[in-house]
Amino acid sequence: MSTEAFERCNQILKHIMGDTSVPRNIRRAAEESKNLLSQDDDEPTVRASTVISILDEISNDPNIPIHARTLIWNVLSELESVRE
Quick check: helix, strand or coil at residue 62? Predict the structure, then answer.
């Protein structure tokens, strides 16, 4: 279950990383989140929680475009299902 969710999240995060209309700090946070989800060192719930805290913080950035914010919310809701 969590592997499929992480894969879907990674696809969305890759899309954000490649979007030049998204500010660099947001793209950097997306890249960091993608890397964390790809690591198998920690439990899936720990990885999901860590990424949720990173993305939750940047989703409140006033400079983030609406489409990127919506994508981040999609990732957050996907990861919330892993945590439960």
Answer: coil
CATH of the domain at 13: 1.20.1440.50
Cα 11–Cα 48–Cα 80 angle in degrees, nearest 5 = 90
Rounded CA separation 80/30 (Å): 17
pTM of the model: 0.89
pLDDT in tens, 22-50: 999 999 999 999 999 998 888 889 999 99
- The number of distinct structural domains making up the chain is 1
**Residue 37 structural domain:** 2-83
